[in-house]
Amino acid sequence: MGYVNLVFFMIYPFLCQLAFSSSLPHLCLKDQALSLLQFKHMFTINLKTLSRNKSIDCCSWDRVHCDEMTGQVTELNLANNGLQGKFPSNSSLFQLSNLKRLDLSFNNFSG
Fold first, then answer.
1. What CA–CA distance (Å, rounded) separates 50 from 39?
2. What global pTM score does this model have?
C-alpha cells in the first residue's frame, strides 16, 4: 500500500498540470493583438469589430477566432464593416501566420 501511495504522490502534480493546461484556453498572443490593432488604425472609420470589447485578449473580440491551444488568430470576419480605400500590400494582417479564414466581403476596397 505504501508503494502505491508513493507512486500516486509522485505523478499527481503531473496529472494536475496536464488537466489544467488542456482545459484552459490560451489568451491571444500580444503580437496577434498588435497586428489586429495596427490594421484597425489603417482606416479612418470606426471598425466596429476589432477591440470593441476592451479586453486585452483579442480572442474574446467580436468576429475574431483563435486556436484554443496556441492563442493564434485563425479566423477573422471583417465583412460589412464599411472599409473603404486601398487594401495595403503591407497590411499587418499578413503577420497573422495562422490565419486560415479571412472574410472581407461587403466592403468598398479599391486599387
1. 9
2. 0.67
Residue at grid coordinates 475574431: 64
Cβ atoms 91, 39 nearer than 8 A: yes
Among candidate residues 54, 27, 38, the one with its CA nearest the CA of residue 93: 38
For 22-49, write each residue's pLDDT tens digit: 444 568 888 999 998 888 877 655 455 5
Answer with the residue of higher pLDDT: 25 or 86: 86
For residue 45, give the nearest of 80, 94, 93 by alpha carbon.
80
Give CA separation, 54 vs 14, 50, 60, 105, in Å.
35, 10, 9, 25
Start-to-end CA distance of the chain, whole Å, equals 75
Other CB atoms within 10 Å distance of the CB of residue 108: 9
User: How far apart are the C-alpha atoms of 105 and 102, rounded to whole Å?
Assistant: 9
Domains of the chain: 26-110 (3.80.10.10)
One-letter amino acid for residue 47 of the chain: L
